[in-house]
Predict the 3D structure of the following.
Amino acid sequence: MKRDRDETFLAQALGLAAKGIGRTSPNPAVGAVIVRNGRVIGEGFHRRAGLPHAEIEALRQVRGTARGATMYVTLEPCSHFGRTPPCADALVEAGITRVVVGMVDPNPQVRGRGIRRLRRAGIEVKTGVLKDACLRLNEDFIYWVTTKKPFVTLKLAASLDGRIATASGDSQWISGEQSRRVVHAIRNRVDAVLVGAETVRTDNPRLTCRMRGGRDPVRVIVDGRLTLDPESHVCTQRSSAATVVFTSEARAQSPQAAALTQHGVEVVGLATGTDQRIALRPLLKELGQRGIKSVLIEGGGQVAASALREGVVNKVLFFYAPLLLGGEGRAMIGPLQVDRVALGYTLHTLEVERSGNDVMVSAYVGAPRRNHVDRNLTN
C-alpha cells in the first residue's frame, strides 16, 4: 500500500529518532521534520538528555523562516519547562501552522498538554500517524514513565533443545557470530545489562558493546552472597559505564564489598530472606529511580527463571543455534513451578527470523497490552 505524504514524512522523522536510541535516557528518542510545499526545510533528532529536543534541532536548520510550514514529530511536543524550554511554545513562535504527531506523550507532565497548547494557538494538529512504529520505538520510555520501572528484555542464547551450556558449564559459543553482533547492537541501545553472579564466574563476560561507535550499558550483577571476583572483567575493564553489584544488606558492609569498591564497583545492599536471594522487583525499582528505563537480562538460567516468576519480564529475545546438547546440559530457564500447561507463561506478538545460522525469536510476555504499551496513547 502506498504511503500518503504524512506517513512518508513521519517515517523520515522516525528514522531520525532512531539515531538517538540509547543516548537520550531518561528521555525518549524523538525525531522531527519540517516541510513546506512538499520540501524538507529542516530536520533534527534528540541527541542526549539536556541537549535541545528534536523540534528545536529541526527549527535551527531552517534557513529563513518556518512560518506556514508543517512539522512532523514522532512524539507530542513538550509543554513544560524541564532541562530545556517547552517545544510547543517554540513551534507557536516559529509560525508553524500544522503539526503531525506520531503519538501522545505518556509523561503525566505532558500528556495532551502540548497538543492543546498548539490547538489553542490555532495550529492544526493530526495525531496517530504511524502510531505503532512510534510506540515500538519508545516502548521502554513509555513503560518507565508510566510505571517508574525499566522495560525488561530477557535475552538467552541456547541450543535447539533449550540448553545454554553443557553439564560442565561450557557455553562459548552457542550462538553464531551474526547473533553476537545483534546482541552488541542491543547493548548499544539499552541502559543496563543484568546477569547473575554464576554467569560472571562461569563465563567472565565483559558485558560491553563491542561495535564501532557504540556505548557501553551499565553492568548490573546480582550476587546475594557477594562472591564476585574483584579481578573479573566486569570489575577491571576500562569503560565509561559503571558496574553495580546488588547484594544483601549484610554483605554490602563486608570486606569483599570494600575490595570491589576499590576497583570502582558500586555495591548496593538490598533486604533479603534467609537464602540471601536478591529479589528482582526492588532491584529494578532502584534502577528505575536512577533513570534507567531499559534493562537487558542476559542470564543465566536461574536469573531468567526468577525474572519470569516475579513477573518483571516484558519481552523475550531467544537465539536458537543449530545444535543439540542433550538433557544433561544446563536448561535455558530454571524451574518456573508450572505444573499445568494451561498455567504456562503466554507470549504474544511473536516474531521469528534468521540470524546467520541461528533462529532469533522475540515476543512479549503476558496477555496482549499487559506488559507492552498503552495503545490509547495515540487518541
Observations:
- DSSP finds twelve helices and 16 strands in the chain.
- Confidence is low (pLDDT under 50) at residues 370-379.
